[in-house]
Amino acid sequence: MNRKFIPLIILVITLTACAQNKNTNPLIGNWLFVNGFSNEKQTFQNENNRMKTFTNDNTFYLSHYQDGKREKTIQGEYEIIDENHYSEKLGKDLKVTYKFTISNDTLRFQGELKIPLENGNYKKVAVKETWVKNN
Asked: What is the annotated signal peptide range for this record (predicted)?
């Protein structure tokens, strides 16, 4: 074999291996709200088309329809920790880690928000939500 082709063959093999090992982020996309609970009380019962969007640049936002158009209400950053956990960061003071599962295009997650109060304490809110994929 001609020695000129050896670097090319090595490059092709390396690129193919990298492409096969690349993990896909299961959260990316649009998710429609099904139900949710905060401290075991049902939340967001009257929200019209509440949607959570995870982007490939590790940002997310929540939106809903208001006056006939989609309005962003909350936005932040997220990070996949492992196959069962991810974290959300809202501003500089609020970060939460959720345990999540995805099955049949249904996302379920739960975690505990620690909302900072002015006096330095935290308000704890147990969150449990279900969302369905909306492509």
From this structure: 1-19
